[in-house]
Design a protein that fits this description.
The protein is about 60% helix and about 15% strand. By secondary structure, it is of the alpha+beta class.
C-alpha cells in the first residue's frame, strides 16, 4: 500500500499531466495482458499521448481543480486514463482502434474542454481527419486561391497589353 507521501507525489504528477492535456479518455482495460498494455502505450507515444493507471480517488483529487473535473464521474471501477497532449483526434483514434483490434476493454467516455464526451462522441472525434491533414487542406485551399488570383491578374494585365497594342496600331495607322 502506498504511503501518504507517495500518494501526494502521484496526485502532483497527475495534476501536471492534466495541465498539459487537451483530452482525457477513461477506459476499462480489464482482460488485457501486460504485453497488450505495453504495446498500446508505445502506440500512444507516437500520438503524443499517455496511458496512466491510478486509483480512482487519486484521479478525482488530481482532476478536481481544472477542466478535467468531470473525469471523476467516469472513473468508477477499473479505469485507465488516456491523456492526449497534441491532437485529441489522434489519441482517441489510436485508443478505439487498439481496443477494437484486441476485442478487449471498454471506453467509458472522455473529457475535453471541461465537457464530458460519451463513447459515441469519442467515435465521432476519432473519425475526424488528423491535424496534419486539416492543415494540408487549408494550405492547399490558400495556395489554389492565390493561384486563382494570380491567374486573374495575369489575364487583366494581358488584356491591358492587348488594348494598348491595338490603340498604338490605330494611332500609327491614323497618322
Amino acid at each position: 500500500m502506498a504511503t501518504k507521501a507517495k500518494k501526494e507525489e502521484l496526485v502532483a504528477e497527475l495534476e501536471a499531466l492534466f495541465t498539459k492535456s487537451n483530452v482525457a479518455i477513461a477506459v476499462d482495460m480489464s482482460g488485457m495482458t501486460v504485453a497488450d498494455i505495453t504495446k498500446f502505450r508505445r502506440k500512444l507515444d507516437g500520438d503524443k499521448a499517455q496511458c496512466k493507471i491510478a486509483k480512482n480517488t487519486l484521479l478525482a483529487i488530481a482532476s478536481s481543480k481544472g477542466a478535467f473535473a468531470p473525469i471523476k464521474e467516469l472513473a468508477k471501477g477499473p479505469t485507465a486514463l488516456i491523456l492526449g497532449y497534441d491532437d485529441p483526434a489522434a489519441a482517441t483514434k489510436t485508443t478505439l482502434e487498439h481496443l477494437k483490434a484486441l476485442k478487449k476493454g471498454v471506453v467509458k467516455g472522455g473529457v475535453m474542454e471541461g465537457k464530458v464526451l460519451s463513447p459515441a462522441d469519442l467515435k465521432a472525434l476519432a473519425d475526424l481527419p488528423s491535424k496534419e491533414v486539416l492543415l494540408g487542406g487549408i494550405a492547399g485551399a490558400l495556395d489554389s486561391g492565390a493561384s486563382g488570383i494570380a491567374g486573374a491578374l495575369a489575364a487583366v494585365i494581358r488584356d491591358i497589353a492587348v488594348l494598348v497594342e491595338k490603340v498604338a496600331e490605330k494611332n500609327n495607322s491614323a497618322a
